[in-house]
Amino acid sequence: MDTLIILLLKMKSIKIITFLFLILVFKAATSEKVFAQGPPIFTDSPLLLGLEGGGIRTFGKYISTESGKSYIQPLVIPYNVTTDFQIGGIQPYVFRSPDNGESQSGFGNFTLFGKFSIIQIDGKAKTFRALLKYTQTFTTGASNVSVNANASQFSIVTGYVTINYGIYGTLGYTFVSNDLPDNLIYNFAFGYPILPQKYPPFQLNIFIELNGIHTLDVNKHLLFVSPGLQLITSSTFLIETGVQIPVIDDRNTTKFAYTLGIRFLFF
Question: Using CA atoms, how far apart are residues 228 and 109, in angstroms rounded to an integer?
């Protein structure tokens, strides 16, 4: 009798453990479905975990203008202090090739940033997030490839993400030193996953974005339409590419900008 009771208790324990395990797997899978879409390419994301969290991001950005060509290779390293607070740094290396003159290269200005989550409303397979972001750019770069001015930017970043699509937006204001004009920035992104959602993630996403900057005092406006493609090969790695095409350019300077990059989550 004692042996039978022990056997029944063991079977009951196995059922309970199995049931709890299935619940955990289901929660992990549904959570991954919401966020497997990946962050936008040119617009900030309010999500601070996963591929938007602590890790490393680098990309090459080729810019063609009326006066020449530029290539920028930034290294971005964010770190999650908590689940609601992230800090990080950006160090670009810049190559410039003017149509009239010699090519120049060197490190660009260094930027520190901080993000703090202020709103999180989660539903079934969907979430709405908002955060405050502050960036500070210092005049640490080579004078031949960098702007000789400090810049402080305050912005609010929002996003509504479901398993079927994601909508993101950013609105910010930049204070620039040395009597240079301040500017207003705004970004909008719509993301759509092409492949069926699954776990572990393997996803192909398309993005269409609007990226604008309005320079005050001189009253100049630059607005890009930015289509992009993003391939997520695992929960820790993605490849992305996109092109920025100016639809409004009051200065008639930018022809287009092309980006190809990776993100790798390593802590």
Answer: 26
Model confidence at 66, in pLDDT bands (50, 70, 90)?
confident
What is the chain's alpha carbon radius of gyration, rounded to the nearest angstrom? 23
- The three-state secondary structure class of 5 is helix
CA distances from 216 to 86, 176, 177 (A): 30, 11, 13
CA distance 125 to 148: 46
Residue 46, SS3 per DSSP = coil
Residues ≥6 apart with Cβ < 8 Å to 32: 199, 200, 201, 235
To the nearest whole percent, how much of the chain has pLDDT over 90?
A: 64
Residue 183 CA to residue 133 CA, distance in Å, equals 16
CA pair distance 130, 116, nearest whole angstrom: 9
Task: Tell me the whole-structure pTM to 2 decimals.
Answer: 0.82
Nearest to 227 by CA among 254, 205, 248, 252: 205
Give the whole-angstrom CA distance, residue 218 versus residue 180: 10
* Residue 224 near residue 247, CB atoms below 8 Å: yes
Task: Walk me through the domains of the chain, giving residue ranges and CATH numbers.
Answer: 36-264 (2.40.128.130)
Return the SS3 of 246: strand
Residues 163/197, Cβ–Cβ less than 8 Å: yes
